[in-house]
């Protein structure tokens, strides 16, 4: 309100200054309306700085303190600015790629998309988690990956009609009330967009880095940029951008078509000063294996599609080492 008042007042005084004379006599100013404008501007600047400092101190007191998840060494969030770009499929195959590249590493997968959980189907998992003696949920496992999802706690067809506070409570339970054991990597499949869940996770747990998934088309890139900027604002390192559905190769004639455009995510990464992690093709086998609950990294480990995800996983690990060295 202070800023608005000073702004309006300065505006009206400026109008009067345009009609009045304003001149310098030696090193002194005449007492004209211009002096009032300068005085008010100076006062406005001082008040604005004081107000900003008070706001900064209040925000710092209000932000939650980050607390590590017990037993988890590094948290990798996989995000996208919008839905439908293959984020969940990328998160699943990234987790499997991390494990395939180095079987000595233990990997977990957290489905943070409360409204539309995909991990149960993608990982071919059903049932409710058991509880430990300390009332912690025990993650379900398949393909050597520990998994937790809201989809394990509700019926398949049941809509989750919750307001923000209930969603935040659910996220807190998925983060804190799960017995992950000892994990080298926890891959978090984030919901699309830049809302409460992204902020809650970024501010409550130490995130090692964010992987942004986008298709090459312009409309998806706009939201990918917003996603990357959001993580910058909450001080989460952006590991890099993944260009999903980059090219389609005809299985008959092998002709390649860039259905969603060419090199859009690569060019965006370059313009933002963000690392480009690689391409994942648009291929029928990725869709079929995902729908059947047998991700391509485990069902066709020697295929070109699986190799793309393994290269992505290797690039993520390399970038993490550089970011945290």
Structural features, described:
- By secondary structure, the protein is of the alpha/beta class.
- The chain has eleven helices and eleven strands.
- Strands 3, 4, 5, 6, 7, 8, 9, 10 and 11 form a nine-stranded mixed sheet that branches. The chain has a two-stranded antiparallel ribbon with strand order 1-2.
- A hairpin with a 2-residue loop joins strand 5 (140-142) and strand 6.
- Helix 1 packs antiparallel against helix 2 (33-62), helix 3 (87-101) crosses helix 11 and helix 5 (164-176) packs parallel to helix 6 (196-204).
- It is globular, with a radius of gyration of 26 Å.
- It starts with a helix and ends with a helix.
Give unreliable regions as ranges.
1-31
Helical content (DSSP H or I, runs of 4+): 40-55%
Given the structure, what is the number of helices? Answer: 11
> Largest sheet at a glance?
9 strands, mixed
Percentage of β-strand residues: 15-25%
What is the subunit arrangement here? single chain
Shape, per Cα inertia axes:
globular
Mean of pLDDT: 83
How far is it from the N-terminal to the C-terminal residue, by CA?
45 Å
Q: Specify Rg, calculated over alpha carbons.
A: 26 Å
* Structural class by helix and strand composition: alpha/beta
